[in-house]
Amino acid sequence: MKEKIEQEKPDKKNTDDKKSKVVWTKMKQDEVEKIIVDLGKQGEKPAKIGMILRDKYGVPKTKIYGKKICQILSEKGIKVEDEREAVSRKVEVLKVHIGKNKHDYNSFRALTKKLWVINKLNKAQ
């Protein structure tokens, strides 16, 4: 019979403070905020910043430090394009394209999907 091997799992958070750094991350909150601000100034979107932090720096989520990426960027005065604005811009581009190319059915499908996203964002508010 196989015996269960019990491994010690690291504590997810320190018991001192709920918003304290996760034990297994090596970066401090100030360092993460500096990286986020630098990437925001380069024009990266919050989702892309999150992926860069995860892949390059080993930070799974910035929320473990108590703030989201958008909150950090807005505190530092960096303008972030809202998801609704980005989707609306894409819808306008698709409408112009469909006006020129009436038989492009894939674009009709893409437009429908973007409209679903806008509807979902409106319901979330």
Structure description:
With 125 residues, this protein is mainly alpha-helical. It is built from five helices and no strands. It folds into two domains: 29-75; 83-124, no CATH class. Helix 4 (83-100) packs antiparallel against helix 5. The longest helix is centred in the C-terminal third of the chain and has 20 residues, at 105-124. The radius of gyration is 21 Å and the shape is elongated.
Keyword list:
2 domains, 56% helix
Strand count, sense and barrel status of the largest sheet are: none
- Characterize the overall form: elongated
Q: What is the gyration radius calculated from CA atoms?
A: 21 Å
Distance between the termini: 54 Å
Number of separate structural domains: 2
Residues in β-strands, percent: under 5%
Structural class: mainly alpha
Order of helices and strands: HHHHH
Quick recap of the structure?
Helices cover 56% and strands 0% of the residues.
Topology (SSEs and partners):
Elements (H helix, E strand, L loop, with lengths): L28 H13 L4 H12 L11 H7 L7 H18 L4 H20 L1
Helix pairs in contact: 4-5
